[in-house]
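Researcher: Let's try something more involved. This one mixes different molecule types, so please make sure each is placed in the same coordinate frame as the others.
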Amino acid sequence: MTPERVDPVADVLARAEALADDLDLRSVRAFKDAHPGALAVGHMPIYSPRPLFEALGCLPVAIFGGGDQLDIIRGDSYFQSYICHIPRSTIELGLSGRIATLDAMVFPSICDVIRNLGGMWKLLFPDRLSIYLDLPQNFDASIGGRFYAGELRRIARELESKGAKPLQAEALRQAIADENRRRECITALDALRHEDPSRVRASEAYTVVRAGAALTARAHADLIDEFVTAAKRRNVRHFDNVRVVLCGSFCEQPPLALIRSLEKAGCDIVDDDFQLGWRMIEGRMDVREGEDPVDTLARAYIEQGCPTASRYIADEVKGADLVARVRQLPADGVIFAAASFCDPALLDQPMLEAALRQQNIPFTSFKYAENTGQFQVIREQAGAFSDAVKLWGASA
Amino acid sequence: MTTTTTAAAATTDVSKDRSQARQKRMIADHFHKLEHAKETGKKVVYTFVPGNLTELIDALGMLPVLPEINALQSGMRKRSAEYIAEAEKAGHSEDVCTYVKCDIGMMKAGNIGPTGTRLPPPDLLLLSYTGCFTFMKWFELLKQEYNCPVVMLHVPYQADGVITNEMRQYIVDQLERVVIPAMENVAGKKLDMQELEKRLALSAKAEDDLVAVWESARHRPSPIDGYFGGVYYIGPIFSAFRGSEDAVHYYRELREEVTARMATGEGPVTPDGTTNEKFRIVVEGPPNWTHFYDFWRMFSREGATVVASTYTRVGGLYDLGFRHDSSKPLETLADYCLGCYTNMNLPSRIDLIERYIKSYDADGFLINSVKSCNSFSVGQLLVLRELEKRTGVPGGFVESDLVDPRYFGKANIDNRLQSYFQMLDAKKRKGAR
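Model: All components are placed in one shared frame. Result:
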């Protein structure tokens, strides 16, 4: 393939950036104008059953807070200083009217903060539907799976009562098929990054994935596919970087500039848990013969959900999955990057560190907030880590 | 998450009632059993206060250990700072729950319990996931340290303020098919349902008397302090003794003492003796344990009696009518777990505090927001606004922590409380004119 002079991803990346930066949800309003009567359903990280919303004729809209583009004026007055940042900016988005086009908000059971935020939403926005998604922590399909399928049906009924289309099995089958295709496209994007991180920078992959926040699975898959195709034609300049896995950023997202700072500091992020929800289900969801597709969604979460801090680990070894990923990619080390005051990530971290230490895998850690604006210290730390790994490898 | 107490085991200069002496004996006896558990062959279950399954543990002949209570006891005994430092040195973040770090630090320092004896390691970690996400991480962390099985009971959240049949069935399914078999396996025997039913019936008796104690605070002056004093009252029922004859006797005695104080018009006993009630306050949030008596004195010195509190409902909300029902043993355990205070959504919590403010005729309400506990703390500033709007009663807000003394700014909290009580006083005087 002949490399091109103009970066072949420039156009698709610019479109993805515009979508990823769309804090005012202009694209959602455009969707609703084009689909009169359709509902827009916001959902907080980490995971929400987006195919269910699509099958109900709703547009799922992932809300990741306000990032570093939003001045928090009212949001701070609702939270004490020791609470993470994403609920502040989400309240700010709500109170400023930026996300008023959302007809419902879903609050999955990630942590106590997001859970209580759902209660606050009920009080602050009583005319809009606030739904708590109680993800099961029992992973027996006949116990936790049954409960979760019931939760999905309850949520469908609630959305139907607000004007969503009645849930039809065929529509859900199609939505699951669309989600499978999106998942395949993300896997292809990840594979390209794993193979050659100079061809697809983590910051670019992040943007392309983030662009799907308010797209249907089909539209998002098309966008990723276009990016991957273009990236393969890229003129690649290789860097002498270390390959790292980044861990702990599954909910509140770091600013894009922070990801770029890590790259500039000599770290190729070959895998991460940014915006984990897109990749929460590992592999395809297959509707079995005669199976209600609602049960397929529940089964996928129970049997194919990836290990993360908010999912209970029963008999498995904590950190085994992280070690396996580092070995398989392969990566030279791990960067723990957690949002300040993020209970799940920070409570998980000592266990993951122990697993890495046992395997002589080097790691470093820092905290951020979604609106962090100073990266010099983090860049120096990441640079020192990168140098140490290059010089001393596992003994760094 | 926060919880509870058995504060009587810590030092106290409060004058001893008969019930308090009984509680102290009960706790000493329990810790004696724990100390000798390995010799006597008793199995030890570590578990949490909200949504605890004490009747089930006892019916299987096992002994509970409640790490939250160990943590708060460490706070009261001024040991928590060193334990937290130990955990932070081992890599635990300064941002996370200090109960967890205190417990881990205590374990690393030899696991010496509140009575000065070594606590036995667990034979089972019974993870009742009720109202607090941190519980799950806490036992994942302990699992790294102990070579024992862990079993989880996932309790759904009352997000819409109601308990549905699906939620109840989910819990019953877990109890029948996961939790009880795991407990039987550790206990080495089958659960005798009659033994469980017997304990549930005893629980209900004690719960009746506890509710009578809470409701005595409607009287003027209130014969109890429903927060600082209240943490002593919840000790037995929130910990190892619910479902025991001991608990029934304790709550009967306590009720009699409170009734007697009510008859003679006595106020609550505080660290400085009996107070004259000047302000009636409702408190939301857990207490600070490292400066418990200092904090209490900031109220008692001003004549402020806490007539109701939400913290004393984390291990069971009996004053809304729930009683353990021995005729439906597993369903009643499910309803108990689902009904704990921190398993209620924010609107329901606000409704409850509003109800307390009105029914206990409170002059004000105060929120003690603790850094460690997001389950309690997230949304409390909205709680403050909503309650002031709905009741017209002024609210106060202070910040501290559970067991990390670095977050108890004594002068700052004292200043805030003094200003708050002065404001209440001015409001009262204005009302009187």
